[in-house]
Amino acid sequence: MKSPRLIQIAHEDPQAVRNELLAGLLAPTATIAPKYLYDALGSRLFSAITELPEYYPTRTEAAIFSREMKGMANALGQVATLVDLGAGNCEKAARLFETFRVQRYVAVDISVNYLRDSLACLQREHPEMDMLGIGLDFSAALALPAEIGKGPRALFYPGSSIGNFTPAAALAFLRQAHAASLGGALLIGVDLVKPVSILEPAYDDPLGVTAAFNRNMLLHLNRLAGTDFAITDWRHVAFFNSVESRIEMHLEALRDVRVGWTGGERCFCAGERLHTENSYKWQIDDFAALLQQAGFGRLRHWTDENQWFAVFLGFAAP
C-alpha cells in the first residue's frame, strides 16, 4: 500500500498573524478575515451548522452531485489528478474517486496536520492511488508545488467558499486557478441568489449554532493576538445586503466595550460592529461571465430543482 506524502508550503508566523488581526481591529470599520472562524472548536461548530435544517448549501450541493455525478464525469473525462481546494476531512472529494476515475489525489488545506489522519484513512481505502497533502493558505495565493506533477489537473472547489471573496478577489482567484490547472478544468460550487426568507435563517439559525460559531472567533483572537474580548459583550448579527448581493456576518457590541492588548486598545460603542464574514450569492449568468473572464471556456452547470445552488465546470483555455 502506498503512503500519502505531506508538504507544508508556508508556516504561519505568529507575529505576522497578530499584526494582521490587530490591523483589522484598528481599521475604521473593524474587520477580521473569515478564515479565523475556523479554530478547532470553530471547525466542529461549522460541521454542526451543516446539519441544521436551515443551512441548505451542504445538502443541496450534495444532492446535485448525487444526481448529476455521472454527467459531470462524462463532461470532464479522465481525471488524472484531482486537486481538492480546502479539502478539510476529504469526504466530498472521496465520493468522486470511483465515478471520476481519479488516479492521483491532492488535498490542499491550510495545515497538513489537519489532513494527515484523513489521508491515512483514504489511503487504506484506495491503496494504489497516489495521494499528496499540501499545507497552503490559498486564499492569499494559489501557488501549487511541482511535487503535484506535470499535466492537466482538475481543480475541485466545492461548498460555495468562493462566496467569501469579493467579486474582484474572486476573479483574481479564478485566474490563479486557471493557471494552476495547467490546461485542465475547474469544478466549483456556487451559492445562488434566492429569497431572503431562505438566506438569512441559514446564517442565523434559531438554535444559535451559527451565533456560537461567530462568537467563538473572539476566543480565537484572544489566543492569537492577546486581546481580552469577552464573548458576553457581543451578539451575532447576520443579514442579506441586497445591494452587494451578499450575506454579511458581524459581531455587535451589546454595550460600550474596551478591548485591550499589549501595546494598544480599541473602544467600541454600543451597537458598533466587527465584520467577520461575507458570503456572496451569484446569478448563474454572472458567475458564468466571471469564469469566462478568468479564461475558462466550454462551461457547464448543474443546479437543484429550486435553483438555489449550482455546480459549474469550466475548462482552461490554452
Can you offer a commentary on this structure?
The chain is of the alpha/beta class and 318 residues long. It has 2 domains: 11-53 and 195-280, no CATH class; 54-194 and 282-316, Vaccinia Virus protein VP39 (Rossmann fold, 3-Layer(aba) Sandwich). 36% of the residues lie in helices and 26% in strands. It has 10 helices and 13 strands. The chain has helices at 14-26, 40-49, 56-76, 91-94, 97-100, 112-125, 167-180, 196-202, 209-225, 284-293, and strands at 5-8, 81-85, 104-109, 130-135, 154-157, 185-191, 234-241, 246-253, 257-261, 264-268, 273-280, 296-303, 309-316. The strands form 3 sheets. An 8-stranded mixed sheet has the order 1-4-3-2-5-6-13-12, with helices on both faces. A 3-stranded antiparallel sheet has the order 7-8-11. A two-stranded antiparallel sheet has the order 9-10. The longest helix has 21 residues, at 56-76. The model has no long low-confidence stretch (mean pLDDT 95).
SSE topology:
Layout: E1 5-8, H1 14-26, H2 40-49, H3 56-76, E2 81-85, H4 91-94, H5 97-100, E3 104-109, H6 112-125, E4 130-135, E5 154-157, H7 167-180, E6 185-191, H8 196-202, H9 209-225, E7 234-241, E8 246-253, E9 257-261, E10 264-268, E11 273-280, H10 284-293, E12 296-303, E13 309-316
Parallel strand pairs: 1-4, 2-3, 2-5, 3-4, 5-6
Antiparallel strand pairs: 6-13, 7-8, 8-11, 9-10, 12-13
Helix pairs in contact: 2-9
